[in-house]
TrEMBL record:
Transmembrane segments: none annotated. Residues 1-57 form the HTH lysR-type domain. This is ArgP/LysG family DNA-binding transcriptional regulator. Pfam families: HTH_1 (PF00126), LysR_substrate (PF03466). GO terms for molecular function: DNA binding; DNA-binding transcription factor activity. The lineage of its organism: Bacteria, Bacillati, Actinomycetota, Actinomycetes, Actinomycetales. InterPro entries: LTTR, LysR_HTH_N, LysR_subst-bd, WH-like_DNA-bd_sf, WH_DNA-bd_sf. Keywords: DNA-binding, Transcription, Transcription regulation. PROSITE patterns: HTH_LYSR.
Amino acid sequence: MHPDQMAALLAVADTGSFERAASALAVSTSAVSQRIRALESSLGRVLIQRGSPSRVTAQGATVLRYARQQQLLAGEMSAELGLGAAAGAAQDRGCHADGPCPAPEPVEIAVAVNLDSLATWFPTLFPEIAHWPDLRLRLVADNEGRTAELLREGSVMAAISAARDPVAGCSSQPLGRMSYLPVASPALLSSAGLSAPGAGPHERLQDGALDRVARLPVLRFDGTDDLQDLVLSAAGLPSGLPGPQVPGNEAYARALEAGMGWGLLPRPLLDRHPGLLPVPGLVPLDRELTWYRWRLRSALLDRLTSAVHRAFAAHRERGEA
């Protein structure tokens, strides 16, 4: 497997297009196509499903994981030896081993982060990561059940996920709990003849309250968002009525405020929208988050792992989890 072939596979996987991959690699589209075909021929496997977009096949995902690991280790080696594009340019200008040279190109680390973490605690890492000249972070946002799948596909090198299943070739470390609160606008609750529960944790529900809750529309992120169903099931209720789908945390919160349905918000986001009220009869949902990463020796992944754990621990100490 030639490095040029692996680079072509990475570029097509990341851009979804042979044309855009060619542009990223500064070669012709036919050169990218030839490299992919040569790689597929040498392995006897179809690695890319051609189309718009072009996608990595299941067998291609295995090769893609290897390609990303190879890219990561090669980048760290170049950084340690002072090689790379920046070092080469410095030598062209007469930079020698006994003189100061600029740092080599940073190594890209792709991380899948669930949308709620990205909207709450994860950005507290940014000021620290901004001062890491050897790392370029690429975030892939998805729901907490999907991020581990991105790791299996080889799209990312690490992930924050609520999934509990092991991922081949990866280690996992628990981060902690994220709490989601079932909330709705006062107007929506009032329209259903409901009032928000008071301060008492065991306050008796209004007669027929759960039946009325079951008839409220459910606001979801997308078609895979099933967290509300878990809350309804815990209350002995069936899946909620179909409601709007509004992706994006801020837009989702505004849709809740507008009374488009009831839904779940992480506790820190609820603090930013104090007008929302608890839905009677429904209890908060806790999701355990896990940090997954490739199981290989990498100083950059080690450093990022430590930073992620510190950030979540600080988030928990502030009482935001």
